[in-house]
Design brief:
Keywords: Membrane, Transmembrane, Transmembrane helix. The structure is a single chain. The protein is an all-alpha fold. The longest helix has 23 residues.
């Protein structure tokens, strides 16, 4: 038996995965806010597709979610303090 076997190392730390899941949740919320507003009858036009929630709030929420996920990917919790190199 080898006692010096290395444990598999994850690419990110636990905090990165938490932030990533929050970002994915915010993106999903944005797409949920964007849904709906259509008409059951294709011959009838519905103005509901142009309201504030679908035109401004939902896309902004999706972009914020993308920003959170990018932050989670780029966040480096293991700061290397070697200033000699």
């Amino acid at each position: 038996m080898k006692n010096n076997e290395q444990q598999p190392e994850f690419l990110f730390d636990k905090i990165n995965y938490k932030i990533l899941l929050i970002g994915i949740g915010v993106i999903a919320l944005g797409f949920i806010l964007m849904s709906g507003g259509g008409s059951d009858d294709p011959n009838v036009f519905s103005e509901d597709i142009f309201n504030f929630r679908r035109i401004r709030l939902a896309p902004t929420t999706v972009l914020i979610g993308f920003g959170i996920t990018i932050y989670a990917i780029l966040k480096n919790p293991k700061k290397i303090a070697n200033s000699d190199e």
